[in-house]
Amino acid sequence: MEKKKSKKGLIVIIIVGVILIAAAVFVVYKFTGGAHVGIDNKPEAAPQGSSDMLVVYFSWSGNGQKMARWIAEEKGADIFRIVPADDYGSDYQACADRAKSELDNGTRPELAEHIDKETLDKYDTIYLGFPVWWYDLPMPVWSFLEEYDLSGKTIIPFFSHNGSSDGANSLDRVKELAPNSDVRTDDALSINGNNVANSEDEVKEWAARL
Ligand SMILES: Cc1cc2nc3c(=O)[nH]c(=O)nc-3n(C[C@H](O)[C@H](O)[C@H](O)COP(=O)(O)O)c2cc1C
To answer: 137: domain range?
Structure first.
């Protein structure tokens, strides 16, 4: 009888333990927006126009930055990071609230980094990377696309997400904001943020195929 009781107790403890672990995982995901690899704030080398391809990316938590660096490595392309003058901080909820309000109000955040026009003119192809934010393009990417004239250039989007695997409104938004570019949405690369850390081969194979 005693033995049966202690077995039951053990089962209850295991079930409670599993529930607590699941709850902790849920809370971490909810408050961080999913898995991310961590952003590296070391500035990228300044684009020199040494190749005809430029990788341009915006990334808050590092997933898109990883993808961007793999693409640049694979293609021998220059790289440019879109950096908002007023950064989004490290708190997920504060970032999510600000991003939503910027999208709702059509705010174009000021950017801290710029490329000069002559250098930008040297690139024919732009790989444009971003996370899906609120089912759309993050507003700093709106700022970038509106600041430069990308007419005649090819833009190939790549993005990470936490469920919006088709990019939601973001791909159409790129087309809208770069109306005179050849935006190759059919070739866009989509990777779930939870898988980015293990996607180096997939990203490089995608880049090599283009
Ligand atoms: C403000 C904010 C809004 C987000 N909105 C969406 C969304 O609408 N759909 C989605 O699938 N993921 C959404 N996510 C998750 C990110 O797209 C995902 O975590 C992405 O991999 C982050 O890329 P990054 O590390 O380059 O910033 C959102 C994340 C943040 C921070």
So the answer is: 53-209
